[in-house]
Amino acid sequence: SLHDALPIYAKTLFTKVVQMRKAQKEYFKCRTQANLRICKALEAEIDREIERINSIIPPPKQPEQKNLFTD
Q1: Which pTM does this prediction carry?
Q2: pLDDT(68) > 80
């Protein structure tokens, strides 16, 4: 089941995010087209993984914010 495998997904996602952040830092250090392509590819991969997980487990609901001026 997904619940049993979630730590694997979390570890995989974490590893991809670390790779993405490293690539982004490298891009901002040296703004080349090659670095930009790597960043975009990793970002797309992470976005797909987030969408996939959200389709299985809905994201938590955001708490309703109160209006500071009327509540």
Answers
A1: 0.67
A2: no
